Each structure stands twice: as structure tokens, then as C-alpha cells.
UniProtKB/TrEMBL annotation:
Belongs to the GrpE family. InterPro entries: GrpE (IPR000740), GrpE_CC (IPR013805), GrpE_head (IPR009012). This is GrpE protein homolog. Residues 1-27 have a biased composition (Low complexity).
Amino acid sequence: MFQRNLLRASQRAVRSSASRPSSLSIRPQTLLNRAARPQSVSSVRWYSEEAAKKEETAPKEGANGTEDAAKLKEELEKKDKEIVDLKDKYLRSVADFRNLQIQTKREVQAAKDYALQKFARDLVESVDNLDRALTTVPPEKLIPENTDLVAFHEGVQMTENILMQTLKKHGLERFDPSVEGMKFDPNIHEAVFQTPQPDKEEGTVFYTQQKGFKLNGRVLRAAKVGVVKNS
């Protein structure tokens, strides 16, 4: 009997304890809130730290920004000046090189044109001798009766003509101021004497003592002449 009463009392105690909510029991929603609360706090803290770092690393405007802009502007102006200087030096170099090319070309051409100058000077004496040989024969002796003299004169004349044509191909030309009726020019003439000639203009070349020669347009030997001087 006693045992049966004791068993009922223990069962009642268990039922009463099960029916009442325990102070140690935790609801699932409460556990979720507690679990989520620390995570939200850490994430907020992480974002705030990142924002602070970005703010620290971001360029500060104001005095520092103005100084940086001024430095950049100064560097750009310096680079622009360097570009202008380099361009000017480049253009000058190109111009100098082209001038050097032109000058070198002229010198080479001049060397070609006047390479025979010394040889031509020596050859001029032979041409003068042929000319003297032709002028020493009086025209009145060139008659059919003097067959040998006429043939010799014609041979010398042909030799001189061929020689002058050959020299002309190489730029050597002879000129006679008195025949051409030239005015006296000290650059190509050498006045040997002066004399009055009423029928001729002042300063005209009326006599040629020695014919002149030009090599490619340059005077190789000035002509020795007589000039009219009426005053």
C-alpha cells in the first residue's frame, strides 16, 4: 500500500514538472537570434573598417590637391618645351644634311667639270700654234698655182677645226672678242693697250692679240685685247 502511494506521488511530480515550462529551456527562434546577432555585429564592424581604410587612402582634396595639379601642369609645360626643342633640333639637322648633300653634289660636279683644267691649259698652247700657222699665210698666196701651199693650209685648217670640235665636247671653247664685237669686260679680257677709234664706241674691243678660252663657262685664259678709248 505504501509503495503504491509512493509511486503515484512520483508520477504526479513528473507530470507537474513536464507541464510547467523550464527556465533552462530555450526556444529555437531565440537560438537563431542569438546566433545571428554576433554575425551581424562583426559584419558591420568589418564594413566600417573597410570604409575607414578607403577614406584614409583616398586623395585628399584642398591644398594637397591644388599642389598636385600645379606640379602636373608644370611637368606638362616642361615636356612641351622639350618636344619643341627636339623638333627644332631635328629640323635643323635635316636642313644641315640637305645643305651638305647639295654642297657635296656641287663639289663633285665641279671636280668633274674642271678635272681637265691643267691639261686644257697645256693644250691651249698647241691650239694657239695652229692658229698662228694659219694666220702667217697671206690670203693672196692661196692661189691654184701654189697647190702644195693650198693643200697644206687646208690640212692645218681641218686639223684645227676637228680639234676645236673635240675640245668643245669636253667643255673647252675659244672666243675672239674683236670678231664678236664685245665690250671690254675685265673678268674675261686683259687690256694690252688703248687707242682712239672715232668710228667705234668707247670701250669696244677692236683688236685681239691672243684669243681667250673658257672651260665649262669659267674663264680658263683671258683674251688679250686692244680697247677703244676716245676720251
